[in-house]
């Protein structure tokens, strides 16, 4: 969610222009800028990533703006070298919810699925929604409204689809122990049935983030808190696996982040797989310089071993990565840091970076900065959402602030090393 420091920065310094600091072999372009006013009908504060359809159009959400200021779902269409934004749906803070967060999911028919972080009737605990595409028009349908009680979740943060059309997601809070939950939504004709398939109790995690499925329908995820003691007495986070057995799911903790933070602290991003079934993600803190890490979990005979691939240093290469990683066809990893890089008096933590990690010999990885965001904010600051690659290897992402005030959607074209 936005903070006062970033909002003040955007309001006073978001319109200052400066040269774009893309590095050799890379070019950075802003595709669209959101505004920063209560009446921003085209949206504001895009903290989630964008996804593609088969025609190359981009889809995403903003936490604010839209017709009533409660967030929107948008489409960006390439037209003659420029991009045109269309608002597909504006949230009303009624039964549909408010503040959509998390990447959208798209089914084979082009329908979109996602979550609103709050709202949804009297409980104000968030929703799961579908945006149905039919004959060129879009209509919104609320699939589930969370109840904020011990049998349901509170504050959902995105969904994924399986091959059967079922939806899976997490809630930051709620559940039996009020530490968050994993839920499933099963379609049945025109209705959907929700059930909580796992409750976090602190020891086995707390405040879960995104999910990923393997080919055997096992779910994998991270929690930003829980596990060991320390880290403000609520644990430093962990990585877990959920395995289905008929109607029950069993959790296995794969790795616990420890208070000393050498292997990272507080993962805020979901996991991704490589072709060998190994898992990769970022932590927002910890590592050698206490600025966050990129790590790998490797499975060998049923056991998982964590290895830190890179520790962020801060001003030079970024700090506090909050987004998931993305692989290209050559096995390079890409993501962003929400802070670090270039900074000034008004943004002392830094405006954020886009980075690449390339595998080398003997298991080593080399980091390359593709772009450092300018503290002036004209080209965006504070990238928090996931990056997505097109077929040509170009990177698309969002910055939560800057541009015309309310953040930007950007594209990075670069040469693969």
Mean pLDDT across all amino acids: 90
Q: Strand order of the main beta sheet, please?
A: 1-28-27-26
Low-confidence stretches: 1-19
Q: What is the count of DSSP helices, taking H or I runs of 4+ residues?
A: 1
Q: Distance N terminus to C terminus? A: 35 Å
Give me the secondary-structure category: mainly beta
| Number of E-type strands | 28
Percent range for β-strand residues: over 45%
Largest sheet at a glance?
A: 4 strands, antiparallel
Shape: globular
Give the proportion of residues in helices: under 10%
**What integer value in Å does the Rg equal?**
20 Å
Order of helices and strands: HEEEEEEEEEEEEEEEEEEEEEEEEEEEE
Supply the key terms.
417 residues; globular; single chain; four-stranded antiparallel sheet; disordered N terminus; mainly beta
Please, could you describe this protein's structure?
Mean pLDDT is 90; it is low at 1-19. The chain has one helix at 4-13, and strands spanning 26-35, 51-52, 58-62, 72-79, 82-90, 98-106, 112-118, 127-134, 137-145, 153-161, 167-174, 181-188, 191-199, 206-213, 219-225, 238-245, 248-256, 272-273, 279-283, 293-300, 303-311, 326-327, 333-337, 353-359, 365-372, 388-389, 395-399, 405-414. A 4-stranded antiparallel β-sheet has the order 1-28-27-26, with helices on one face. Strands 2-3-4-5 form a 4-stranded antiparallel β-sheet, with no helix packed on it. Strands 6-7-8-9 form a 4-stranded antiparallel β-sheet, with no helix packed on it. It has a domain at 1-53 and 323-417. It starts with a helix and ends with a strand. With 417 residues, it is mainly beta. Strand 11 and strand 12 (181-188) form a beta hairpin.
